[in-house]
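# step 3/5: fold
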Amino acid sequence: MRAKLALLLKGTEHEDLPEDLGNKSKILLESNPVHKKVPVLIHKGKPIAESAIIVHYIDEVWPGTSPLLPKDAFLRAEHRFWSDFIDKKLLDCLMRFVRGNDKDAANEEFIANCVLLEGALTKLGSEQEGPFFGGASFSFLDVMLAPFAVWIPGIVGVMGLKQASEEQCPRLHKFFEAVSEHPAAKGALPPVEKLKEFIQVRFAGNK
């Protein structure tokens, strides 16, 4: 989702190769022999794996259109810090929740992490300029967080996840609404209903 979103924001022509994760293709296994998982970007015959690394790469190779990382070195570090937080904290507690590993504790941690992200969005993003960390336009951090605009309602609908309230996280709620309406995000992220079907098949036994 993130890699495709970054490519769409850049206006970069690309070809999507569907992947059956139950029967992984030869090209996936050869392109990512370490983790054997998607996403993988193949550019000029060379594979790049892991979504955050791919988004960095896309921003460096196509810097002229819709730059994602800030020019300021400190702000770039802040974006990398919160990107790491999203993958190591927010994603982790969501995965523990859907797998049925102490769901109450995982849900509480999820809400606490959302509150922390609310603080980061308030600190790094200008509400006067727009709803994103990048103000009116997507930044690196927005790309990293954007898939949760569909994952969270999908997990809420199927597994009963409790969200942080709009009162707790007003900026974050506006962020997810804006992501859902963004043309590039619409092209990169699956519909919530389709994601619900995936969650139902993959994790329904852990309710």
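# step 4/5: annotate
The radius of gyration is 17 Å.
# step 5/5: archive (pending)
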